[in-house]
Design brief:
The strands form two sheets. Strands 2, 3, 4 and 7 form a four-stranded antiparallel β-sheet that branches. A three-stranded antiparallel β-sheet has the order 1-6-5, with no helix packed on it. Helix content is 0%, strand content 36%. The protein has a domain of 60 residues: conserved putative lor/sdh protein from methanococcus maripaludis s2 fold (Beta Barrel), CATH 2.40.420.20.
Length: 90
């Protein structure tokens, strides 16, 4: 098939930009793992407004203060306890 390059203009609606590695496929739909106040993870469905090579723009399902897992998402299980590792945000 042929590849197509294009550019889509986003409206003024707020979006959360995440690395592509944060995206998880749940039954064919996009989701991300969010760390709860109890340091456990929960899978949250999201709406992706735009996909780029190495990042995604999430338009619904997350708040600006949500802590999203960006690495190792395929090894997590619902309500699994996690430890936050300090590092450089990307």
């Amino acid at each position: 098939g042929a590849s197509v390059a294009g550019r889509a203009e986003m409206g003024s609606a707020p979006v959360v930009v995440l690395p592509g590695s944060a995206l998880f496929d749940k039954d064919g739909k996009p989701a991300v793992w969010v760390v709860t106040a109890a340091s456990a993870v929960e899978l949250r469905p999201v709406v992706v407004a735009r996909y780029e090579t190495d990042r995604v723009f999430v338009s619904d399902g997350l708040g600006q203060s949500d802590l999203v897992v960006t690495a190792g998402v395929n090894r997590l299980r619902e309500h699994e306890k996690v430890r936050i590792v300090e590092g450089e945000a990307k």
